[in-house]
Amino acid sequence: MQDRYIVFDVETPNYANDRISAIGITVVQGDAILQEYFSLVNPEVRFDKFNIQLTGITPDMVKDQPTFPMLWQQIMPIMDSGLLIAHNAPFDLGVLAKCLHDYEIPWQSDVMYACTCVMGRACYPQLYNHKLNTLCDYLGINLHHHNADSDSLACANLLRDYIRQGIELEHYTRRYKLENCYIEKAVRHIQPSESSKQLAILKGLLNDITSDGELDENEVILLQR
Questions:
Q1: Which of 59, 192, 198, 201 would you call most buried, defined as having the most Cβ atoms within 10 angstroms of its Cβ?
Q2: What is the value of pTM for the model shown?
Q3: Residues 99-135: b if buried by 16+ CB within 10 A, e if exposed
Q4: 213 has a pLDDT exceeding 80
């Protein structure tokens, strides 16, 4: 549907980033928010301490929540109804693709999307980075970061700001091949060692911090810790 945008954000339980512990979806039509959706998800895998500290989601909180296949029945009509939008969108799309693959749920082979981080660079080139919290602070958008419902709503409000500025989304629309993540998942090795897990956590942290190609003082301190 033209001018309909499905803005979403996912949280994950561990370093593998192949399961969802929470999802937030905000539907934008033109310049108006039409619908907000949020759900915790039982990922059916273990939680890493780092992810619990980051998101505040614990195993006890999700044990009675829907699993991804149950959730997908509810959200697929929404996800199918417009252009997908996320902040650092390849990350969220990658998690979604791996869940679909692992649960053997058929969907599209590829989807169209746009990234509010990329668009933020174009709209606000003067900012020192274009992370979600930086853009929200600059624009006065309320954000409880790493909460999927708050992140998706904040991302939707960023998109609305860009639209009001006259940004042409077709210039930022890309195709994401979901099957690429299927291949990545298929070639994974057997259960990794503890050191490999720690390196994977560090890799995920580095990816998150440097996703916009910029590093600030607070992020240096976080890496040192």
A1: 201
A2: 0.82
A3: bbbeeeeeeeeebebbbbbebbbebbeebebbbbebb
A4: no
